[in-house]
Design goal:
The chain has 123 residues and is α+β, with helices and mostly antiparallel strands. It is globular. The N and C termini lie far apart (30 Å). The model has no long low-confidence stretch (mean pLDDT 94).
């Protein structure tokens, strides 16, 4: 039986004042299955087209922290899966932002994560 899931795209925003961004990952949350995972794919060359001075290592560190929050490690370890998803998708004005959350139905949230990265990030 399909389950409701939510997802948000993870955006790199090298210069928030310009409003330009590039999708660098996705987060998928499925409450009934207690599933919360992220996957990332960084194309440094494309990002440098937006901002040649972007420190890709800093961005990758921030993405690692985001993925750790999904996994429930680090400072977010005591939070529920739903609390972590809501915290991760809260609006912010930093180098990493998320799209608004979207919903769908799935039998396999891990496959949805793979599909989102393939169709929305690696294009």
């Amino acid at each position: 039986m399909p389950h409701v899931f939510e997802y948000a795209l993870v955006r790199a925003v090298p210069r928030p004042e310009r409003g330009e961004f590039m999708n660098v990952g996705a987060i998928v949350y499925c409450a009934p299955l207690r599933f919360l995972r992220c996957a990332v794919a960084v194309d440094a060359d494309r990002l440098h087209a937006l901002d040649p001075a972007l420190d890709v290592e800093v961005l990758e560190d921030a993405l690692r922290s985001l993925c750790q929050a999904c996994e429930g490690t680090g400072p977010m370890a005591q939070s529920s899966v739903g609390q972590r998803f809501r915290w991760l998708t809260a609006p912010r004005s930093t180098i990493l932002q998320t799209s608004p959350a979207h919903t769908g139905l799935t039998d396999d949230p891990a496959a949805e994560l793979t599909r989102l990265v393939s169709t929305q990030v690696r294009i």
